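Comment thread on ticket #2218

A.B. wrote:
> Attaching the input chain for the structure job we discussed in standup.
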Amino acid sequence: MSGRLLLAAFAIALILEGLTPLIAPAAWRRTMRQLMVWRDGQLRFIGLAATAAGLLLLALVM
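C.D. wrote:
> Ran it. Output below, let me know if you need it in another format.
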């Protein structure tokens, strides 16, 4: 994997992360408040699921 491809992937991730607070800041704020009350184990599970889905998608694309 080239460095340019890695930077492009990082740039796309930043763009996607920034869309929700740009388009719907109130909904984004509500979601962040709700996440604050979740236990660490719940957040870790969501992180694990997102990572696994990303790895699976990457494996299918490559």
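A.B. wrote:
> Thanks. Noting for the ticket: The two ends are 11 Å apart (CA to CA).
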